[in-house]
Amino acid sequence: MNKITEPVITLALSKGRIFDDTVPLLAEVGIQVTESPDTSRKLILPTSDPHLRLLVVRASDVPTYVQYGAADIGIAGKDVLYEHVKEHPGGLYQPIDLDIAKCHLAVAVRKDFDYEAAVKQGARLRVATKYVNVAREHFANKGVYVDIIKLYGSMELAPLVGLADAILDVVSTGSTLRANDLVEVEYVKAVSSRLIVNQASLKTRTQYLQPFIDAFAKASQGNKA
Length: 225
Hints:
It catalyses: 1-(5-phospho-beta-D-ribosyl)-ATP + diphosphate = 5-phospho-alpha-D-ribose 1-diphosphate + ATP. By secondary structure, the protein is of the alpha/beta class. It contains nine helices and eleven strands. Strands 2-3-1-4-11-5 form a six-stranded mixed sheet, sandwiched between helices. A five-stranded mixed sheet has the order 8-7-9-6-10.
């Protein structure tokens, strides 16, 4: 008789702060990441647990890999999740705020730009961002008309070269803004990272997924203490 082999659970996450902050969570439950995405060219990384592997993808792609079943679980920032869910509703379960990779979304402008005058009721503003849905909702609530210019990187350039009046982007320390003579003028919303789960996987592989979900929930409690 053939022995039934437990399936391998795939965890999707991105390089950078999310990956760096996830490694200690895994370590707390006895799982070691055996290779680093900074030194390895592999996009699928093994762990010390034979039933868990890591899929290293772009931050904005993590929800897509999970929603469509290429990964069973993932870790993604609330900023990315908000945009994804607005455009692709359904298919994702978000059970845990891991309270890692914390930052916030904010509006920033050139130091010499009069933001208060520019956002008076009924005004029109050009805003560069990759967070299109967040920006539309934020400025609609203020009664400000916006022309959204979607960019994927080097956001700080937009006000400096006249492409946009303002940017809406993730801010951590603010050092990049300061280096480019920009100032934060409005806090939009807090961002941390959530564990996300493919809903179909959760139904069909509950006995294999639930221990990992429980482990992340337990490990993340230290971040919220």
